[in-house]
Amino acid sequence: MNTGQSLQSPTSCGLIQDFECGPPVRSLSPTTLGFMKLCGIDVTGLDHSRRSLALYGHSVRLNLFKPINAKEDSGASLIDECSRKSSDLAAGNLKSNFFKPIKAKEDSDSSLNDDCAFTGEKFRQISTVGNSTNILWHECPIQKGDRQKLLQQRGCVIWLTGLSGSGKSTLACALSQSLHSRGKLSYVLDGDNIRHGLNCDLSFGAEDRSENIRRIGEVAKLFADAGVICITSLISPYRRDRDGCRALLPEGDFIEVFIDVPLHVCEARDPKGLYKLARAGKIKGFTGIDDPYEPPYGCEVVLQHTGIDSVSPNDLADKVISYLEENGCLRA
Ligand SMILES: Nc1ncnc2c1ncn2[C@@H]1O[C@H](COP(=O)(O)OS(=O)(=O)O)[C@@H](OP(=O)(O)O)[C@H]1O
Ligand SMILES: Nc1ncnc2c1ncn2[C@@H]1O[C@H](COP(=O)(O)OP(=O)(O)O)[C@@H](O)[C@H]1O
Questions:
Q1: Domain spans of the chain?
Q2: Which end of the chain has fewer CB atoms at under 10 Å, N or C?
Q3: Domain 144-326: what homologous superfamily?
Q4: Which residues are paired to 161 by β-bridges?
Q5: Which superkingdom is the protein from (predicted)?
Q6: 25 CA distance to ligand 2 middle (Å)
Q7: Which DSSP symbol is given to 205?
Q8: Which residues are catalytic?
Q9: 290 C-alpha to center of ligand 1: Å?
């Protein structure tokens, strides 16, 4: 029995518009659930792991996912619709513990492949991420590719790293200016600036530096997803933290640029007088003095200081622009 009724999410997400079911929700029973059809597929023939029906509030949503790989969580459990009473389903009593949480969804592209029950279709997943349980990724019809087409560029992250005084902020601005003049949209996330707002709760202890970088990595990822060329300008002294940010993005979208200026040059520049204070012991844990800087291994671009300050910030920016051009970042 199939009334051909199409269930739509309150947000009219296209992902579930092909979902057809038989009777209205109120009269669903373990038997009638067998009539549910998903994109023309009769789910009665499928094993239990591929037939999860989600009740979200009082409306039915389609949620197909692989509970087999689920991460255990005391707060939630998988419910096989065949073992549930129709009254429970109809009353929406199951919404808070309907799913066994699955591996956290990392980005809008990654959830749509291996974890899907049906190849070639997009399905939404309930997941547990950090301290958030039972959260549902919401997909929008306009995606990164659409925005990139609009902007005629590739959303990516240019991650500038180097000692304090190496020229990160100067290069970030020169780069942004050069991109702007070419009609490319960029945005600079500068460590100093972000510490005035979003990250004003963080110190320069190792743990807080890591958190600083993690947050900026996440924000940069959003900018890249928006189609913007995001330039970050942070010391980001620890390799592991930078690699963590790299891992957030698709291959090729994280461009690490090491501004390789030796400590003695940075110290001679000392535009803020911080090295002097650090040498005098008035600032503790200053990068390069009594806190480590770990240079990258095999990053995309190295801008090596040549001994004299002969390479202007604009020339350095040109080198990065060349990399972007060669790697197709300046076209959609
Ligand atoms: N202890 C210590 N170590 C290093 N730097 C210090 C410190 N205290 C303050 N500052 C100033 O803060 C700027 C670095 O902030 P970041 O957010 O880029 O640092 S980090 O990536 O979290 O390590 C850095 O700015 P830049 O000179 O632009 O790099 C310094 O001016
Ligand atoms: N390519 C360069 N050559 C010479 N001096 C530079 C260059 N880039 C930046 N500077 C100078 O170095 C100092 C530190 O630059 P800044 O961009 O603030 O570094 P950071 O952001 O890494 O601390 C500033 O006085 C700046 O004018």
A1: 144-326
A2: N
A3: P-loop containing nucleotide triphosphate hydrolases (3.40.50.300)
A4: 258
A5: Eukaryota
A6: 65
A7: S
A8: 236
A9: 13
Atom number, ligand 2, closest to the C-alpha of residue 235: 22
With a 6 Å cutoff on the Cβ, whether 164 touches ligand 1 is yes
Give residue 263 CA to ligand 1 midpoint distance, Å: 14
Alpha helices in the chain (DSSP H): 86-91, 144-151, 168-181, 191-194, 206-225, 239-246, 263-269, 274-279, 313-326
Residue among 160, 163, 166, 170 whose CB has most ligand 2 atoms within 8 A, to mutate: 170
DSSP letters for 250-312? -TTSEEEEEEE--HHHHHHH-TTSHHHHHHTTSSSS-BTTTB---PPSS-SEEEE--SSS-S-
Question: Which pLDDT value is given to residue 308?
Answer: 66
Which region among 55-59, 135-139, 192-196 has the lowest average model confidence (pLDDT)?
A: 55-59
CB 139 within 8 A of CB 168: no
- Lining ligand 2 with CB less than 6 A are 162, 164-170, 233, 269, 271, 309, 311-313, 316
98 lines ligand 1 (CB under 6 A): no
Nearest residue (CA) to ligand 2, atom 11: 167
Which residues have C-beta within 8 Å of that of residue 204, sequence separation ≥ 6? 285, 286, 291
Token representation of residue 163: 């000692």
Instruction: Name the pLDDT band for 307 (thresholds 50, 70, 90).
Output: confident
- pTM exceeding 0.80: no
